[in-house]
Structures are given as structure tokens and as C-alpha cells.
Structure prediction request, 398 residues.
Amino acid sequence: MRGKRHPSHLSQPSQPSHLSHLSQPSQPSQPSQPSHLSQPSHLSQPSHLSQPSHLSQPSHLITPAFIDLHVHLREPGQTAKGDIAHETAAARAGGFGTVVAMANTTPPTDTVERWQAMQERFAQSAQVRVIQCACMTKDRAGREPVDAAALKTAGVIALSDDGSTPQDTGVMREVAYRAAEAGLLLIDHCEDPTSSRRGEIDFATRDLELARETGARFHLQHLSATEAVEALREAQKDGLPVSGEATPHHLAFTAAAIARWGTNAKMAPPLREEHDRQALLTAVADGTLAAIATDHAPHTAEEKARPFDEAPNGIIGLEAAFPVCYALLVKSSLMTLEDFLARLTTGPAKILDIEVPAISVELDLNSHNILDINQFHSKSLNCPWNGYPGWGKVLRVF
Ligand SMILES: [Zn+2]
Ligand SMILES: [Zn+2]
Prediction:
């Protein structure tokens, strides 16, 4: 399916633009303008619109567009997998108005010059706002800290070596002191090279201790192990400036999914046990994990067709995130709609220390949504989402 769509079509709005009168939820009873042609019948009742806190049984909702703290756009250097135009079109289709792009580009985004070059690429082809991380270490090699002060001056707000973490605590300590001094957020992938449970727990614990020692803000990516979540919860009780995220796939699946989906259920950290999945659901519901982040990671069909041990880690997730997580967390009554939307909006914004951007999303909350990856916009379709019984639809981002 890769390449079936040319990026040039991506600038065409997939939802009718004549619905802009629905963008004023503060005046929900105002009648729509009848002059609009071909208004879909399911949008003919703007009285359903309201702020989340006023919700009773709405079918449609306009709310701030989602913020994804963790995506891989694959450009430059890996455009057989994905590119800015396709992956940000997927973000837009998934309800996201802002995404945070990881720095494991080729070459790695580890200097001011490379970071500024990314801004030019985004201006040319991004369909949503992109916040580009810079690396924590030069060449993302885990040995020598980047020039955090210069990156901050250029406009960087977060550093990440995602895909790995500096294994040397001395290096990470230096990164943390520099980040604290510059006022940069550290977004860390807590794992050893074997993606072991013990490694995730140990590196999460290391980072939490470094947050205490250095004052640096640490955001722990895609936690998967019960014990790591518990360590984060305890650190937050101590008042440390630390946060965490869960991915839709770690909320939806356990390692049992590998039997059905093979390499399309291979990721780092790996899918774990049911008690881990339950711990993640609980932590998202209670706010210990204040963000749902996709770790959207396109890989080619050829790469994912390799034997399991040789295939790359990662799956796409931008267009699955809302229907999957809405079903898992809200329709299951684990948390309120308002709290759930916070994990996709105010939660990640607070972690980034930014205002929620003035971008909106319109959602249809009352429809089953059996996921069809052939409707996805990503350049690669590597994922276990096809046929997944989600709930709710994203109608448009505007
Ligand atoms: Zn990662
Ligand atoms: Zn990642």
C-alpha cells in the first residue's frame, strides 16, 4: 500500500470546510446557515456541540486538537518508511494538531543547523504543527552531550535520544545538568539494548533519581512495565518534575498479540503481560501517565516481512489512537471523557510547558469504528490495528 497516495493530494481537506460555523461551541444553540450545500446529515445538529465539561450524551464534540508527544516522521534519510507529508497527514486524520518528532532522523537532529533545517521542511510539507526534538547526545551515540544552551536559544524545547538512552549514567547526569540549566525537557526512552523488563525499571529509576539530583524535567516515554509505572508514581508523590506516557498499543495488547500479528506486534519496549497492561490503564486513568503518545513508527512492508528477530521495532498509531483509547478507557468506564481528552491535550501541553495550541478537532463520539488500515494516510501500514474494534471517529482538524 505504500506510495498509493501522492503527498500533493494531502493538502485537500478531507472534511468539508463549509462547517466552520460549528467551530463556536460557546453558541451551541445558534442555528446553522442553511445556505451551506450538502451538509452531511450527521452534522445537522450543532446543538450537540458543547465544552467537554458540559457533556451529557453528545454525538459530536469540538475540543482542542490532540498533541502527540512521540512520533517518528522518518525524514530526512528514511523516506522509504515515511515522510513529513504522509505522517503529518496521518496525524491530522487522527485528530492531532501538534506532534513531537523524535530526533532519530538520518542524520540525527543533534545540532542547531540540522534542527533549523527541519523547520524548513515542516514549513514546506507538514500538515500539522511539528515540534522537533533535538538529540540528547551527539550523533545520538550516548557518549557526548549536545550543546543544550545553543539548542535552547535556537528554539528547541525538548531533547531525546529515543530509540535508545545513554547507557552511561555519567553521560546522562551531564545531559541532565545541562538541560536543567537551559530549561529543556528531557524525553527519555528507558531501556537497555535487550528491551528487558529489568532494564526499563533500572533506567526509569535512574532518570527519576537524576531528576531529584539535577532538577531536570524528565518525561519517561512509552512505559510498559508495572514496576516502572510504580516508580514514576512514587517520584511524583515526592514532587519531582517527572512525567510519563503510555502508547495505545501497550494499552490494547499483550505479548499474546505476537502470535497473530508477528512483526507488526514487535516494538520497543515489547508488549508485556496482562498485569502490565492493567497497570498502564490504571496509570492513564489516575493521571500518573498524563499523556497518551503513539510512538508512531512507520517501517516498510519489506522490513516487517523479515524474520521476527531481524525485523525493526515499531508500529504506526496516529490514526488508531483516538478510537482505540476512547474504547479502552472511556467506553469501558475507566475514566471520564474529560479526563481522557486531557491525556491528549492539556496533559501533553503541560509536560512540554506550552499552551494548548489554538487548533480544534471535531469528533463523532457515538459510532463503532472497526479500524481499516486501508483508510490510513501513513506511508507505511505496519501495525496490528486492522479490524480492531474502536469507538468514535475523528471528523476534522481545523
Ligand atoms: Zn522509544
Ligand atoms: Zn519512538
Q: What stands out?
A: The radius of gyration is 20 Å. Residues 197-214 form the longest helix (18 residues).
